[in-house]
Specification:
The chain is of the alpha/beta class. The protein has one domain. The chain is 22% helix and 26% strand. It is built from 4 helices and 6 strands; from the N terminus they run βββββαβααα. The protein has a 6-stranded mixed sheet with strand order 3-6-1-2-4-5. The protein starts with 19 loop residues before the first strand and ends with a helix.
Length: 129
Amino acid sequence: MVSETGLPLFVYEPLAADEIRLLEILPGKGADKIFCRLRHALPNDCPTYEGLSYVWGTSGPTHSVIILSNNGEQYRFPISQNLSDALHCLRDSPTSRTLWIDALCINQADDAEKSSQVIRMKSTFENAS
């Protein structure tokens, strides 16, 4: 396996007009690396998910999660210490967990996407379990 720092950075696929992204955290324990999948979903036809609201913190990314593509390729996604701590606490060893987290589920580098997703953020949280 390639070291985490040797992995290419994750690149988002654009969302369709009504879609959201959901993050599936794969099982793991303790300080194990965090492996995830990002998938697109329609709000009225998506799996059960939990919404995570947290303080981003003031420092930049200091950790990474590994995002797995549908064909099994691995990509690095830099995240903050706060988010890393939260994901380590939230993942459940025997099963995966599906979440909506703005820092990962919204392409923060795409102003148009960010604007359209922020507008629907209230309903995204309301639809979470």
